[in-house]
Amino acid sequence: MERLLVWHSSKFAEPHFTVEVPDVETGALVLHILAQYDLYQGEERVASNAQGLCVWNEQTRAWDDWEDADGQDIDTLVAKGAIAVPIAHVGLPLPTAGE
Fold first, then answer.
1. Residue 98 included in any domain
2. CA 56 – CA 68 distance, rounded (Å)
3. What is the pLDDT of residue 41?
């Protein structure tokens, strides 16, 4: 089983936030949540952001950018709908009881 890691930085000068994830789908969800949180904070608090999904390379003993067997990265696969992110909208009011 491959080791996967999500990294995220809201400001390029700051250290990256990292978290290991169990699979590509969870990685896509975490990336989406982090991006939505940056949008929620607004441009005045988040000047720039960068993020990605990495896979551990046992040969080089380093994290490499993750790609599928066809060389497509996580952003491409999510944009194409090949990996579903189960959150459609962030920032909507909380549902009330019975919804």
1. no
2. 14
3. 76
